[in-house]
TrEMBL record:
<dbReference type="Pfam" id="PF08770">
    <property type="entry name" value="SoxZ"/>
</dbReference>
<dbReference type="InterPro" id="IPR013783">
    <property type="entry name" value="Ig-like_fold"/>
</dbReference>
<protein>
    <submittedName>
        <fullName>Thiosulfate oxidation carrier complex protein SoxZ</fullName>
    </submittedName>
</protein>
<dbReference type="InterPro" id="IPR014756">
    <property type="entry name" value="Ig_E-set"/>
</dbReference>
<dbReference type="InterPro" id="IPR014880">
    <property type="entry name" value="SoxZ_dom"/>
</dbReference>
<feature type="domain" description="Sulphur oxidation protein SoxZ">
    <location>
        <begin position="9"/>
        <end position="100"/>
    </location>
</feature>
<dbReference type="InterPro" id="IPR030995">
    <property type="entry name" value="SoxZ"/>
</dbReference>
Length: 107
């Protein structure tokens, strides 16, 4: 399981767009690079990232081997109601990481 850092504002005014920033620790090995013994290192990438806001998907991304290690993702959504954001990364070798963060929406 990877270690993730997620940054969202503590509170947002209803109807305002706000930014969600996420960074996850992951090597993102392409499967094309030789290791110290000359043998190709096995592929190990995050394939999919999704974010749900109170259970409704608001953002998704399919990643490829061209993405750098420790991918950083930033995107916006609109504040509708207080609740939680759930960010999920899935990938090769049964990799799965999930972070849930609260969001408070004010009038």
């Amino acid at each position: 399981m990877g270690h993730a850092l997620v940054n969202v504002p503590a509170s947002v005014k209803r109807g305002d767009a706000f930014e969600i920033k996420a960074l996850i620790a992951h090597p993102m090995e392409t499967g094309f690079r030789p290791g110290p013994n000359g043998v190709l290192l096995p592929r190990n990438i995050i394939q999919r990232f999704t974010c749900t806001y109170n259970g409704v998907e608001v953002f998704s991304l399919t990643l490829s081997p061209a993405i750098a290690a420790n991918p950083y993702i930033a995107f916006f959504t609109v504040a509708t109601e207080s609740g939680s954001l759930t960010l999920r990364w899935t990938g090769d070798k049964d990799f799965m990481a999930e972070e849930t963060v609260p969001i408070t929406v004010t009038a």
